[in-house]
Each structure stands twice: as structure tokens, then as C-alpha cells.
Amino acid sequence: MQWAAIFHKHDVRITKGIEYLNFYNSELSKHERILPCKISCALCGTLIADEGRKMWLAFPSLFNFESVSKVPAKFKPTCHIFYGTRVIDINDDLPKWLGHKNQSPKFE
Fold it and tell me: Domain of 92?
């Protein structure tokens, strides 16, 4: 299970520190920025994001919201995806999709 924030790529900018990023394409087993790819910290190996052709999937637990004492509303979960293959039930009021959001049936 993972908590992920998905952005359109045109909304994401890396402004500094790119030299500290590793890129890995698991389909080709190459440590290169061949999309889609996984992005990790070159210093500690922590996974940072998955970069797709049109999206950027980041892990909100890595964000520093500085003076905000809680997770901003924009970063709170809005749904569960791939709920049809879950290993535990989640008891909340969020919509649960069997596959991709808006592209699969909802879990009833």
C-alpha cells in the first residue's frame, strides 16, 4: 500500500538538486531516465517518485510543508485505486475503484 500524490508533468519543476537523483527504468533494467522510470535519492536510495510520460507520482510523506502543522487538503487522499486487489479493507468514506479512477467500476 502506498500514499501517492499524482500530478500532471507540466505542473512539476525540479529547481535544484537534480544531481542527487537516480533514475531507473525497471522494464529495461537500466539506470537511465527512460520513461516511465523510478526516481530515488542518489545519497540514501529513498524512492522519491515515479515519472510517467504524462504524470508524476510523488510520495507525500517526503514533502516538507514547513510551517503547516498538518497535511494540506490538496495532499489528502481523495480515493483508493486498484481496490479490487487490496490485502486489507479500508474503512473510510473515500470512493474505492477496482482499477484506475474513472476508468474502472467502483467497488460496491
Answer: 77-108
CA distance 44 to 29: 20
- Residues 10 and 59 occupy one common structural domain: yes
Q: What is the pLDDT of residues 47-58, one digit of tens each?
A: 999 999 999 999
Nearest in space to 52 (alpha carbons), one of 3, 4, 103, 1: 4
Residue 22 sits in the same domain as residue 61: yes
What residues pair up with 56 in beta bridges, in sequence order? 7, 51
Q: Which residue has the cell 499524482?
A: 6
Number of compact structural domains in the chain = 2
pTM of the model: 0.71
Question: Taking phi first (over 0 means left), then psi (-120 to 50 degrees means alpha), and beta for anything else, what does residue 65 get?
Answer: alpha
